[in-house]
Amino acid sequence: MGLWHKGSVRIRMTLLASVAIGLLCTGFSGLVLIELHWYRMSKQADQELLADLRVADLIARGALPHLIPDGTITAIQVVDLKGQIVATDEQMIGKPRVADFVPSAEATPADRVICSAPGFPDLCVTVVAVRISGLGNEWIVYDADPVIPWYVSRSLLAALVGGSALLIAAAAAGTHRTVGRALAPVEDVVHELGEITATDLGRRVPVPDRNDEIRQLSDAVNQTLDRLQGAVGQQQRFASDASHDLRSPITAMRLQIDEAQLHPDETDWPKTANALEGSLDRLEAIVTDLLALARLDSGTERATESVDLGELVAAELGDRNGRVRVITNVEPAVVVTGDRLQLIRLVTNLVDNADRHATSMVMVSVRHHGDQAVLEVSDDGPGIPPHQREVVFERFARLDTARDKDTGGTGLGLPIAKEIAEQHGGMLAIEDSEQGARFVLRVPLRCPA
Q1: For 70-88, b where at least 16 C-beta lie within 10 A, e where not — what string?
Q2: Residue ranges of the chain whose pLDDT lies below 70
Q3: What is the CA radius of gyration of the chain?
Q4: How far is CA 446 from CA 224, 304, 338, 427, 441, in A?
Q5: Contact 330, 314 (CB under 8 A)
Q6: Do residues 201 and 225 make contact, with C-beta atoms less than 8 angstroms apart?
Q7: Residue 250 has what pLDDT?
């Protein structure tokens, strides 16, 4: 069973080729046998007719001898109406009548197949009888020849069977070898894939030299391995960064508790409690963002409702008490299709990020642009260099700029916002601005303006 599965394609192709060649050989052999059988039958009928004509000529001339010198057919007898044999060939000397049936009319032949006839023991012959008149009398001429079998002759059948067997064997061997060569690169790919593990994703399957479907398969497998290696590397970096960020507040809380336990009488417990609460808040924020990313990565089905971005921004930022002033400028009826809670999370993350880095104010605007809704969040802070605008959307990204001096964020707010934008069929990017950073969200409108 294992060998069958291992070489199933090769075996199936070999069997298919063998069956196809076998059917062709069978059809060809059948046609040859039919044609030769028909030819032999026609030739035999012609010989019997010529023999009858020669006997009729002898009778007409009154020169019919007792021994008929005719070697074109196997046996011939001439019998009068009384049933007496008046002439015969050398094969039937001393033999009784080969048959006793009589044609119904003159010159109309009648034939029978008779087995074990006189002179033909253990053999079936075709006997043709013809009534001939001459010199005032009537005679019946019997011609006998062995029945031609369907296979014509044993030597011909053996030649056809042997040739077909050799041709089928050659086709099977050639197909097996050809398919084996064609599938050898596939076996190499399977072998290499079987040895690749999660800790050894740098290996790649071999790529054949010839440009065919196998090469395309190898290239596709290697591209998949590249993506898999990148995804695994990203997950590993994400796990490492998450562990580091989770460890920081935990370590801070442990140090504060250890210090308080060493000097319990000198510890300002309300101050320590406030410090611990701050660390717990940061820990809770990181865990909440991690759960949000996990839900986004899992592809959980989101709600699809009509959401007016202008109303959403006004509702969420109306009573906001941030570090700096927030200025809003929204157009009416900027309606998109999406999950309200996720869009609220996106807006909140963008505004929180701008609030942490702004110098004096944050500006939020919502407007139409063609068939898209555009949300802009900008600040008057130090801004982000162009070459690092994609880096900020990486999870737990750290920038070597003034914006890196952020102690309130988790490093996951902007990646979460970008994931939400993409899941809503839109995009979130950082665009040029005269001062500070300018985040622009573009999402398809529910009904184009």
Answers
A1: beebbbbbbbeeeeebebb
A2: 1-7, 106-107, 135, 198-199, 234, 237-242, 244-245, 293, 297-303, 397-410, 447-449
A3: 51
A4: 36, 11, 9, 16, 15
A5: yes
A6: yes
A7: 82
Q: How many Å apart are CA 230 and CA 95, to the nearest integer? A: 100
Torsion of CA 278, 284, 289, 292, to 10 degrees: -150
Helix (H, G, I), strand (E, B) or coil at 158: helix
Q: In angstroms, rounded to a whole number, what is the distance separating the alpha carbons of residues 246 and 164? A: 77
Burial degree of 122 (CB within 10 A; 0-12, 13-18, 19+): exposed
Which residues on adjacent β-strands are paired with residue 221?
Answer: none
* Tokens, residue 254: 């442990």
Residues 300 and 337: beta-carbon distance below 8 Å: no
279, 252 in Cβ contact below 8 A? yes
Buried residues in 291-324 as b, exposed as e (16+ CB within 10 A): ebbeebeeeeebeeeebbbbebbeebbeeeeeeb
Q: Give the C-alpha separation, 262 to 268, whole Å.
A: 13
Amino acid occupying residue 239: A
CA distance 5 to 70: 68
Helix axes 213-262, 154-195, angle to 10 degrees: 20
Report which residue type is found at 425: G
Residue 401 and residue 385 in contact, taking contact as beta carbons nearer than 8 Å: yes
Under 8 Å CB-to-CB from 32, ≥6 apart: which residues?
156, 160
Tokens of 349: 């993350």
Q: What are phi and psi of 292, to 5 degrees?
A: -65, -45
H-helix segments, 61-118: none
Backbone angles phi, psi at 144, to 5 degrees: -130, 130
CA–CA gap between residue 212 and residue 235 (Å, rounded): 35
Geometric angle at alpha carbon 341, from 324 and 436, rounded to 5°? 30
CA 58, CA 56: separation in Å to the nearest integer?
5
Gap between the Cα atoms of 116 and 123, Å rounded: 5
Q: Is 147 exposed, middle or buried (0-12, 13-18, 19+ CB in 10 A)?
A: middle
Q: What is the amino acid identity at position 437? A: A
**Which sign does the torsion angle of CA 303, 307, 309, 314 carry?**
negative
- Which residues, 6+ apart, have CB-to-CB distance to 384 below 8 Å? 392, 399, 401, 403, 430, 437
Contact 430, 307 (CB under 8 A): no
3-class secondary structure, 424: coil
At 402 the pLDDT is 42
- Give the tokens for residue 282: 């940061």
Q: In what order do the strands lie in the sheet with 110-115?
A: 85-88, 75-80, 137-146, 124-134, 110-115
